[in-house]
Design goal:
By secondary structure, this protein is an alpha/beta fold. It is built from 13 helices and 12 strands. Helix 1 runs parallel beside helix 12 and helix 5 crosses helix 7.
Length: about 325
């Protein structure tokens, strides 16, 4: 990845600010952070003292609680790789005047590609067929296989943020798909997403009834927890595919397993589970329930995307701590 325009501070500059790196990040991005900051790394004893000393921290899968913030009155900014902040108490951050700098949109293309990959894998049963050949040694005759086409089908997108829009563009261009959208958060007027041919509907049920592929791109909140459960799955076509590359918990896993076993829907592709990383001990029953592909939340796990999302968070923190307003505090 090309150096950021913010790559202006040498390694030996004594005036560099200090950054506590509390998660394990890509080596390229760690070196980039070291070019801008005096870095305290997660695997050093000094990192354990962040609540006492840190004004700026960088995290990935790390819980920041109200108690943490109360113990760290000097903390001013949290850099967060990626968009999700469900592990950070954002209400407490606001109360303690701690800024959260996450990186929405940077990983949109990578997650959209995984959405397409899961839809294709489920529609054509690619992983199951491969395992039957490699593990079972089966000679598979093509006339015994019944997959689904995605070309010309209807994709239902729940949530039209950065990732939802990237998915819409990708399916429309690659598969000539009809795009049906439900987004309960964005205003209807003036009309949005005019560059993407789509039909916007007013309820989740309307999407579920017409879509051949339903893909979820909303954050996990109290309102979206078990957003897709027994009732919603029953509304879907028997030939429909459900994709979740957002967060575990949005799809009710018990209801999904039942729907797959009963043939209520064709299949499902998950890049996220309620327990992460997912294990065979926890998910063997779900994974064996039918035409399902489960991945360990790696949609954004390409080298390019990992570096881009981390570096964006680093840049945001650097801008903040070198701004005149911060230096005046």
């Amino acid at each position: 990845m090309a150096p950021s325009a913010l790559d202006i501070v040498g390694n030996n500059n004594p005036s560099k600010p200090t950054l506590y790196i509390l998660s394990d990040f890509h080596e390229t991005s760690v070196k980039y952070a070291e070019s801008l900051f005096n870095c305290i790394h997660y695997d050093t004893p000094e990192a354990l003292k962040w609540r006492t000393h840190a004004t700026a921290i960088l995290v990935k899968d790390y819980y920041i609680t109200r108690a943490d913030l109360e113990a760290a009155p000097q903390l001013k900014i949290i850099g967060k790789q990626g968009v999700g902040i469900e592990k950070i108490d954002d209400v407490a951050c606001a109360e303690h005047n701690v800024k959260i700098y996450n990186t929405p949109g940077v990983n949109a293309g990578a997650v959209a590609e995984m959405t397409c990959a899961l839809a294709l894998s489920v529609a054509r049963q690619i992983p199951a067929l491969w395992l039957r050949q490699v593990v079972d040694g089966e000679k598979i005759r093509k006339e015994t296989i019944s997959g689904l086409l995605l070309t010309g089908k209807t994709i239902g997108i729940v949530g039209m943020g950065n990732i939802g829009r990237a998915v819409a563009r990708m399916f429309s261009a690659a598969f000539s798909a009809k795009v049906v959208v439900y987004d309960n958060y964005m205003p209807e007027n003036p009309p949005l997403w005019t560059d993407i041919p789509h039909t916007r509907v007013g309820s989740l049920d309307e999407v579920l009834k017409v879509a051949d592929v339903v893909t979820v791109h909303v954050p996990l909140t109290k309102e979206t927890n078990s957003l897709i459960s027994h009732k919603e799955l029953a509304l879907m076509k028997k030939t429909a595919i459900l994709i979740n590359t957002a967060r575990g918990g949005i799809v009710d896993e018990v209801a999904l397993e039942e729907a797959l076993r009963n043939g209520t829907i064709w299949g499902a592709g998950l890049d996220c589970h309620e327990q992460e990383p997912p294990t065979k001990e926890k998910y063997e029953s779900l994974w064996a329930s039918g035409n399902i592909v489960g991945m360990p939340h790696i949609a954004a796990a390409t080298d390019e995307t990992q570096v881009a999302t981390i570096n964006a968070a680093i840049d945001g923190v650097y801008r903040f701590v070198t701004s005149p307003s911060f230096k005046g505090t």
